[in-house]
Amino acid sequence: MRNEATVLHADLDAFYASVEQRDAPALRGRPVIVGGGVVLAASYEAKARGVRTAMGGRQARELCPDAVVVPPRMEAYSAASRDVFDIFRDTTPLVEGLSIDEAFLEVGGLRRIAGSPEQVAVRLRERVRAEVGLAISVGVARTKFLAKVASAVSKPDGLLVVEPDGEQAFLLPLPVERLWGVGAVTASKLHRLGITTVGQLAELEAATAEQLLGKAVGAHLHALARLRDPRPVDTTRRRGSIGSQRALGSRPRSPDELDLFLTQIVDRLARRLRDGDRVCRTVVLRLRYGDFVKATRSHTMGTPTDRTAVLLAVARGLLAAALPEIAERGITLIGISLSHLGRVDALQPELPIDWNEGARLDTVLDAVRDRFGAASVGRAAQLGRDAGVSTPLLPEHE
Asked: Is 345 assigned to a binding site?
């Protein structure tokens, strides 16, 4: 069992409704309901009036007659989710997605290069706000369960760290509904027995909890109430793509500045490929123009690769084609995604095998960074080039 608070639970606030408010400024600060017949999501302004997810639309409108009801836009929500999960996986490779709007992140191995778990969480929230335009709440704790409870308690738009020596003081006074797995039926059963807080449930013997709630449910909830949750962050599901992006602010950017950002992003993504023994076939350039309209350009290569020089050449070609549009509309975000991923050991090499200098350079750079840190060495193309942005890319990490 870990003895440090290193698990983050990141949960977007009122996700669907927040995307609607982000994309339509006139909705900001107003009660918003997504979905007509059944409430799919409600903004915090609507929640304050009693509107809840899964509530019937008629009841929701009776509680909040001045609410703005909008139809769901699943493509917009999926796109926002992809952007946020790109930031998650740019923060740490140890990500366990729970749903479209929440995930666990294990950040215990990042202290030397990225700071404490709390510092990592602060930067994560800042990036989601700046790059995706959404608020996200984060809980930090020793276990997944406590991290999830902490993020819920911190809402909206909050950050809460539960240190190991403060776990009981945090959890035991909370209502039993905060326990992961306590729904309306179980809560009602516990209330009838006079059990309203987590602490009261923890005081029971395990056998008693199993007798009252059933063997499986009772054992599970009793273990959580007594702070037992040994589950690690599960990252067994492999990603179909990896990506990274950079918010640029609103001032104009020169082609040289954009090339610098592109080089930094591709450099670190290529290293992530090699660290995971993976290769990719498709490079996707992601742009957000000055009017906040998003666009993508992509190129699929004939042969999968993990070579930085090859990927950078493709990305630069995509950027060059987009420069006239950027000059006209401005740019507020640039990003790269690598998709059609495969394992390097599944490739059938072509003959003759080309042991080129680019591959050797990648290997040497990776080794130096592994030993001395991500910022210890850079490519000559970056020397003397300052993009003038106060928040650098997060360092590469394992």
From this structure: no
